[in-house]
Amino acid sequence: MSTDRYISPLSERYASRQMQYIFSQDMKFRTWRKLWIALAETERELGLEITQEQIDELKSHQDDINYDVAKAREKEVRHDVMSHVYAYGVQCPKAKGIIHLGATSCYVGDNTDIIIMAEALKLVRKKLLNVIAKLADFADRYKALPTLAFTHFQPAQPTTVGKRASLWLQEFYMDLQDLEYVQDSLRLLGSKGTTGTQASFLELFEGDQEKVDRLDPMIAEKMGFPGCYPVSGQTYSRKVDTRVMNVLAGIAASAHKMSNDIRLLQHLKEVEEPFEKNQIGSSAMAYKRNPMRSERIASLARYVMADALNPAITSAAQWFERTLDDSANKRISIAEGFLAADGILDLCLNVVDGLVVYPKVIEKHLRSELPFMATENIMMDAVRAGGDRQELHERIRRLSMEAGRRVKEEGADNEMLKLIAEDEMFGLDGQALEAALDPSRYVGCSVHQVERYLDQVIRPLLSENREELGVTAQINV
């Protein structure tokens, strides 16, 4: 490991090997050569004087890239594409004259960027599906476990642990829908020339418009894409990058929301993220079990959400048919956005897979607040026994204030039910009041909602994508 220069923590600590390879130099330049082969093959099929021998020579050196030659050449000419055209030509002397024929640099640069983003989205989709699968298992396992719900982080009507997890699950499912829409809409730039007019190809094919029209679809098919964008400048619209990064930002927002909830629940000691046997929570406080992974999710998520501004600004700032102020920003923001999103999803997989629930603590917290929440049911029971609803409501209000005062000022237990039992207006005995404290009476349709959502939405999705499931995450630190 080099210790005398900056190394991105996205590579060293967070992103997986698979995602790092997708954005590697090897992936990039191998794709360039595939695109040059696809262009030459298509031009030959459309009648240009290119031989099969030349095509075969190009294919024979598709993957053994002579990086040393390209690097030395780039120092001379200061142009990465022409350096690699030269290096490829050194290996393919018979074909060197037809490499990159009619094309501009964006033919390899932009088409490769789209191909790389498409591959990266496939990996993101796979991991997102696995996060959804693990959350679905968790929601199903705890769908009937009552827990105190919160609005404004103040105690509110109970829900269940599984129902709360279904809220996280639904947001990730929405992200998957957005991802698939953008994924399905991706197209190649194709061969559009220096300003997008295809003038060089119209010249190559001696004014034959039909052949020019066939060029892009044939290249797209060879590269495994459904087509090319019908119009462009020299580059594909940078709006494409914006749409892709917005998908990643959406996933980051969902992960941030879930990780924040887990962090708060870990403070309450109701739920805990995985904590390994020899893990150290604090350098000073040896007893601490900090939610480090959930905090890391939130930290990386903020980066991805902010990073989504980069392609939006770049898209807005492109002048006419092309400017080059996109290049440096784009090669950083897109790659690092994907690497960070990949790290987030690995962390989500790890956290959800090992999430620990403490039912006794959950029950203790719930029962401390349940007497207040039981008052509406108690009031209805008293009304059925002949009481006046308005008078009972006022009496409960006063008793609630008194019980709350004792809890806050004296540190006493919640004695709301005791106060009600001692009040003759209610006419309820201790047994009836205790029955009112059954937590399952207060979770509404939580269990049904979880079951219905899993059965109608999530399980069909997972069944259709069963071959993508089974991913586990390796957390580096």
From TrEMBL:
Keyword Lyase: yes
Pfam families named in the record: ADSL_C, Lyase_1
One of the protein's GO biological processes: amino acid biosynthetic process
Domain of life: Bacteria
Enzyme Commission number(s) from the entry: 4.3.2.2
UniProt-recorded Gene Ontology molecular function terms: (S)-2-(5-amino-1-(5-phospho-D-ribosyl)imidazole-4-carboxamido) succinate lyase (fumarate-forming) activity; N6-(1,2-dicarboxyethyl)AMP AMP-lyase (fumarate-forming) activity
Keywords carried by this UniProt record: Amino-acid biosynthesis, Lyase, Purine biosynthesis
InterPro entries according to UniProt: AdenyloSucc_lyase_C, Fumarate_lyase_CS, Fumarate_lyase_fam, Fumarate_lyase_N, L-Aspartase-like, Pur_lyase
Reactions catalysed, as given in the entry: (2S)-2-[5-amino-1-(5-phospho-beta-D-ribosyl)imidazole-4-carboxamido]succinate = 5-amino-1-(5-phospho-beta-D-ribosyl)imidazole-4-carboxamide + fumarate; N(6)-(1,2-dicarboxyethyl)-AMP = fumarate + AMP
Enzyme category, top tier: lyase
Pathway it works in: Purine metabolism; AMP biosynthesis via de novo pathway; AMP from IMP: step 2/2; Purine metabolism; IMP biosynthesis via de novo pathway; 5-amino-1-(5-phospho-D-ribosyl)imidazole-4-carboxamide from 5-amino-1-(5-phospho-D-ribosyl)imidazole-4-carboxylate: step 2/2
GO cellular component, one term: cytosol
Signal peptide as annotated in the record: none
Positions of the Adenylosuccinate lyase C-terminal domain: 370-454
CDD domains xref list: Adenylsuccinate_lyase_2 (cd03302)
NCBIfam families (UniProt xref): purB
Family: Belongs to the lyase 1 family. Adenylosuccinate lyase subfamily.
This protein's name: Adenylosuccinate lyase
Biological source species: Candidatus Eisenbergiella merdigallinarum
Classification of source organism: Bacteria, Bacillati, Bacillota, Clostridia, Lachnospirales
